[in-house]
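2024-03-11 09:14:02 INFO queue: dequeued item Integral membrane protein, len=318
2024-03-11 09:14:02 INFO validating residues
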Amino acid sequence: MGSVERTLKMTLATIVAILIAYQLHLDYAMSAGIIALLSVLDTRKSSLVIARNRLLSFFLAFGIAMMCFSLFGFTTVGFMCYLLIIIPLLYHFQIEAGLVPITVLVTHLIAKKSIALPILSNEFMLFFVGTSVALLFNAYMGPQDQQIRYYHQKVESDLKGILYRFESFLLEGKGQNEGLLIKNLDKILDEALKLVYRERHNQLFQQTNYQVHYFEMRRQQNRLLGQMAINVNTLMRQSKESILLSHLFHETACQLSEQNPALTLIDDIEQLLETFRHGDLPQTREEFERRAVLFQLLQDLERFILLKVEFYQDYQND
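2024-03-11 09:14:37 INFO prediction written
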């Protein structure tokens, strides 16, 4: 939920709840607005959970309040008795979200100095109006499909850019990569994951983990690229093997897309691994170290592609 949408929903829900409470001639009508304000949350699911927890805390709190006020009167001692009992109970049952708004309603009993049924009914109606209005406003959540699609395109574009950059480094034999693209992509992936997790919690009946798993897969790939960047930085000379590997990075970038299963790339990697294994032995320490780095890059690239293959196999029928 964007800041503008949140502001509008919270403001309108508060005003509507107050107006309804006034129309019902409820005392302390403003309290219905406060409850609505506190109940407008970022997702439908969280709103329903909070509403349920506050309903439970309402009955528990008012039961304890009636007992304490009956014993100690509508005094500070009676209110202290209520707090000493209700606070640990709500936290014990993990419904503490209702503590503040319900306690505000309980103070109305002190102001009225009564626990008569009409007073209790008034407080319940304030709670009911505020919570119901908030749930109605939370029923609308702006669609995020366009934003999610943007993140898909942005992430794939940036991944391709990083892979092409690695190709260039390997061809030139100059690995001078500061990893800025990888760090920026990591931030974008964090934003995307926050969005899809929130969107998932807005789907009450038809939930799917596809988007969450997709961006998690891309984040794992990006972390692998971060490891590769460290190795690429050590390659300061072109070689036959680095040229072959650069072509594979190029091909990976060309085939990188949400729908591509990437199975052919695995075959290409296996062929290149065989080439590495059966090639001439390195003659110098420097050549040995360079060959070891290239071999590690190839293995990391294989893991990079396997992440996509496994994801595609899990969701190819979705």
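2024-03-11 09:14:37 INFO annotate: The mean pLDDT is 84.
2024-03-11 09:14:38 INFO item closed
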